[in-house]
Amino acid sequence: MTNRSLGVRRAALLASSVALLGLLAGCGDGDDTASAPPSESGTAAPATTATTATPSDPGPGSGVPTDAASASRTPSAPPSPAGGTRCHTSELSASVGRNNPGAGQENFPVVLTNRSSRTCTLHGYPGTAFVDASGRQLGPDPQRSATEPETVKLAPGQSAWAGLSFANPEVSGAGTATPAALLVTPPDEEDPLKVPWKSGEVPVSGNESSVRLIPFSPGTGA
Fold first, then answer.
1. What is the pLDDT of residue 207?
2. Which end of the chain has fewer beta carbons closer than 10 Å to its terminal beta carbon, N or C?
3. DSSP letter assigned to residue 143
């Protein structure tokens, strides 16, 4: 065989091999992983949370809470027993009774009186906050005693009282301020009642600056 014939044969074999490889490359066995489709630009919208509107409050507080009215609110109380429904702020009046000091403590009854024409109930603690003339809270949030609350039924004109106490600042050395008013919020209500404060300085900073509360009992605490 001549060199020319051999070269022609090799060229033909090379062309056949290239064609065969191209044919194999174009055929799949169906087991390969498909390419993911191109991703779209943008992000998912964030989940939304429903909000509940609240009544207007006094200005921001100088203590830990942002405003005195929210600080004076109380967590939901247990449902009232059969035969009565809870007293609403609009049905009550508030007052602060006479100080009954003792053992370095100042002790005041916070009194709520039913001024409606129906019988209603109170269960738990009042929300309280000392405020200045502009409505800003003075001092930290009150602390609650471990006393088990009772449900107090108030017929029209009847009252219940909760104890409010704090260490005498002259004894404890706490920083003081003179409030313009005490905000009092009935249990499970949001709207406070404002009572003028006429009993002088209260502790607002430093050691022994916390106000303490005991839950409602029948009567005026006098």
1. 82
2. N
3. E
pLDDT band at 68; cut points 50, 70, 90: low
80-124: pLDDT as tens digits: 444 459 999 999 999 999 999 998 999 999 999 999 999 999 999
Give long-range contacts, CB 8 A cutoff, 24+ apart: 92-100. Answer: 92/116, 92/186, 92/193, 93/193, 94/184, 94/193, 94/194, 94/195, 95/195, 96/164, 96/182, 96/195, 96/197, 96/199, 97/161, 97/220, 97/221, 97/222, 98/222, 99/199
Q: Is the pLDDT of residue 125 over 60?
A: yes
Two tokens at 64?
């830990």
Question: Looking at beta carbons, which pairs linking 23-27 to residues 24 or more positions away fall under 8 Å?
Answer: none
Cβ–Cβ < 8 Å for 189, 88: yes
Torsion of CA 88, 94, 100, 106, to 10 degrees: 80
- Is the distance from CB of 120 to CB of 87 less than 8 angstroms? yes
